[in-house]
Amino acid sequence: MNILETNIISHAIAFVKNAHADAEAGHDWLHIERVLHNALKIGEAENVDMTVVILAVLLHDIADAKFHDGDETIGPRKTKAYLESQNIAPKTIDHVVAIVENMSYRKSLGKLSFQSRELEVVQDADRLDAIGAIGIARAFSYGGFKGRPFYDEDHVALSNMTQEQYQKSQAATINHFYEKLLLLKDKMNTETGRAMAQNRHNFMLMYLEQFYEESGIQPLG
Q1: Is 64 helix (H, G, I), strand (E, B) or coil?
Q2: Nearest-CA neighbor of 221 among 145, 160, 169, 162?
Q3: What is the DSSP string of 105-167?
Q4: In 10 A of CB 94, how many CB atoms?
Q5: What's the rounded Cα separation, in Å, for the pair 152 and 172?
Q6: pLDDT for 120-170, tens place per residue?
Q7: What is the pLDDT of residues 149-158, one digit of tens each?
Q8: Domain ranges in the chain?
C-alpha cells in the first residue's frame, strides 16, 4: 500500500469515526473496527485489492438501511459522494459502491447484481461480527433498540426467507437466531471465513442451550 492509499484510508477512518459517533452499539465504530480486523485476516489468504476491501469495510454501514426506513440507496449514495470528494480513482469508487450495494444479508437471499472476491471478503468479515459472543451481544442490543422481546413462543421462525420476508421481519431476538444468525456459517464465501465462523457458530448453539434451560421454554427452532 503506497503513501497515497495510506492517506486515503486514514482520512476515511476519521470520517467514519465521526459519522458513527452516535450510532446504536451494534453498528458503531467498534463494529467497523472489528469487521476491519476480520477483513485484514481473511484478505491475507485471498488475491484481492486490499484498498478496496478496507474502504468498503469502513463505509459499509455509513447509512444502514435499518436506520433509514429500509432505504438501501442511502448508503451507496453517501459512499459514492464521500469517495468522489477524495478524488479517488473512478474504478475504485465503482467497486467500493458496488460492494456496499450488494453485501447485505437481505441481498444474498436473491440474485446478486455484482460479485467480486473483494465483496466476498467484506461479506465474510461482516458476517463474522454477527455471530459468536459479539453477534449475540449485537443481536440483543439491536432488539432492545427496537423494543423487541427476548423471544416469542408463538412466532414460527422461517429459515428459508425471501428478501421481502426478511425485510419485513419483526422477530424477537432469539427467533432471529433461526432466521439469520445460525445460517451464516454456511453462507461464508472464503475458506478462512468458514474456519473462523465454526467456533462462533458452536458458541451460539451452546448459548441457546443454556438460554432454554434457564428460561424454561422449548427450543424455538
Answers
A1: coil
A2: 160
A3: HHHHTS--S---HHHHHHHHHHHHTTSHHHHHHHHHHHHHHTT--S--TTPPPPSS--HHHHH
A4: 14
A5: 6
A6: 999 999 999 999 999 999 999 999 999 999 999 887 777 677 777 767 777
A7: 999 988 777 7
A8: 3-215
Domain 3-215 architecture: Orthogonal Bundle (1.10)
Residues 220/174, Cβ–Cβ less than 8 Å:
yes
How many C-beta atoms surround the C-beta of residue 178 within 10 A? 19
User: Nearest Cα to 39, choosing from 15, 26, 56, 18?
Assistant: 56
What's the confidence (pLDDT) of residue 189?
Answer: 96
Q: Look up cell 461480527; give the residue.
A: 129
Distance of alpha carbon 55 from alpha carbon 130, whole angstroms: 20
Of residues 110, 125, 106, the one with CA closest to residue 48: 125
Rg (CA), the chain: 18
Helix (H, G, I), strand (E, B) or coil at 61: coil
